[in-house]
Each structure stands twice: as structure tokens, then as C-alpha cells.
Amino acid sequence: MRLEYFDMIDTVVTFDPSQKRIATRSTVPSASPVFEGHFPGHPLVPGVLLTETMAQASGYLLLALNQLQQMPFLMMVDKARFRTFVEPDAVLDVSAELVHEGSGYAATKARIAIDGKPICDAELRFRLMPFPADMRTLMEQRIAAIGLVPERN
Amino acid sequence: MSATFETVAGIISETCDIPREKITPQSHAIEDLGIDSLAFLDIAFAIDKAFGIKLPLEQWTQEVNEGKAPAEQYFVLENLCQRIDDLVAAKKA
């Protein structure tokens, strides 16, 4: 997990195309410029970055399900709940499931847990659009880096 | 049709914060009600869930952009409701 680069997902634990679910894992870094401001002497992962983490897990799920045919862009965050603080070195279990596949959009539910304890959850919605420029190549590299194998028909 | 319209009008009113009385069967979602594409996706999500269907928005948008169908065919509410009724009927068949 590299907070300042928005590189939030370390590895894919499981991807289940039939259940349309993904489980991923990330370790919060010991140090980051983000912690210098949030907060001095009391480092906590900002809720907005936990939301981004859930969005990225969902995004990878959608990319794998659609076999990188369309790029998901976060368009809505609903019912976000942040239940406890997340500190440096925490190991996050980040999971997401598809709850609705529309035409040109998709909805997921995502959550983060530490040692089985719920940390945060949200309902997210994504617009599905053609890949801009060379973003598809970038996404191929990133899903390979986290060990995700897209669904094959 | 009227039951479908009532449901759709309620969804649009709640989703876009538009007074219910301003929404009529002849309203054009984009030109009259000012609903943008992002908001329309929000409406589509609620319609999909309410009716158990999948509005083919990508197909409709492509048809309109390519001049194969007038926007009114899909985005005037009475026409939209007819499309919804057609999709519901097709699902039951």
C-alpha cells in the first residue's frame, strides 16, 4: 500500500467470478507523508483513503469480470461507515461484491476488516466507460502486479 | 402505464430533488427536467431495482448519437415508461 501514490491494493487473495466477489489484502505502511498531516504525532489512515481502497478493490473486481472491456470510474459513495481507526502497519482485508450490473454502470458493496473485525463499509457505484488513451495497458500491468486473473469465457 | 409513470416520477423527484408536480408524462428528462447523464445513471439504477430489469442505456445512447433514434423516443417520460413496460413484459414472457 502506497498511500501517496493511490496504490491501495497489495494482493488479491481470492477472485470468485461465479459469486462476483473479490478478496484482497493490503498493509498500511509504517510511514507516509500522509501521516505527517493526518495527524501530527497521531498517524491515522484518512477515511477518504479507506474509501479509495474499497473503490479500488471494487474496480479490480469489475475489471476482472468484464475482462478489461470497460474502465470503472467511481461515481457514487453511499452509506459509508467508518467504525474504528486504522493505524500504520495494519493488515487490511478488503473485499467487494457486485450487487447490480447495469447498462454502463455497476454497483458494489465493499468492506474492510482487520483480523475479522469490521473497520468500514460502503455501497459504491461506478460508471463503466471505454478506456481512455493507454489506461488499459496500465490496468493490465496493475492487475498482473496484484495477482489478479480476469474471468475467461 | 400510469403506475409505471408514478413510480418513475417518484424516483426522479427523489433522486434529482425535482418537485413531483413538475414531472409530467410529456417531460423530457434532459431538456425539460435538466437531468444530466450522471444523474440519469442514478435514476437507471433505481428503475432497474424497482422493476427488476436492466435499462439498455448504452444501446439507447448509441442509437441517439448515431441518429438512428430520436432522443425523445427514450427520454420523454411517457416513452421511457413504455420502454420499461416492454422490458418488464419481455422478462415475464
Which descriptors apply to this entry?
heterodimer, A: 153 residues, alpha+beta, Thiol Ester Dehydrase, Chain A, 6-stranded antiparallel sheet, 3 helices, globular, B: 93 residues, mainly alpha, Non-ribosomal Peptide Synthetase Peptidyl Carrier Protein, Chain A, 63% helix, 0% strand
Identify the strand order in the major beta sheet of chain A.
1-2-4-5-6-3
Principal-axes shape call of chain A: globular
- Mean pLDDT of chain B equals 93
The total number of structural domains of chain B is 1
Give me the strand/helix succession of chain B.
HHHHH
- What's the helical proportion of residues of chain A? 10-25%
Classified in CATH, the superfamily of chain B is ACP-like
- Low-confidence stretches of chain A are none
Q: Specify the biggest β-sheet of chain A.
A: 6 strands, antiparallel
Query: What is the CATH architecture descriptor of chain A?
Result: Roll
Describe the overall structure.
The complex is a heterodimer of chains A (153) and B (93). Chain A is an alpha+beta fold and 153 residues long. Chain A has one domain: Hotdog Thioesterase (Thiol Ester Dehydrase, Chain A). In chain A, 23% of the residues lie in helices and 39% in strands. Chain A has a six-stranded antiparallel beta sheet, covered by helices on one side. In chain A, strand 5 and strand 6 form a beta hairpin. Chain A is globular and about 45 Å long. Chain B has 93 residues and is an all-alpha fold. Chain B is 63% helix and 0% strand. In chain B, helix 1 packs across helix 2 and helix 1 packs across helix 5.
In short:
With 153 residues, chain A is of the alpha+beta class.
Task: Give the arrangement of secondary structure elements.
The complex is a heterodimer of chains A (153) and B (93).
Chain A: E1 11-16, E2 21-27, H1 33-37, H2 47-65, E3 71-82, E4 91-101, E5 105-114, E6 117-129, H3 135-145
Antiparallel strand pairs in A: 1-2, 2-4, 3-6, 4-5, 5-6
Chain B: H1 2-16, H2 37-51, H3 57-65, H4 72-75, H5 77-92
Helix pairs in contact in B: 1-2, 1-5
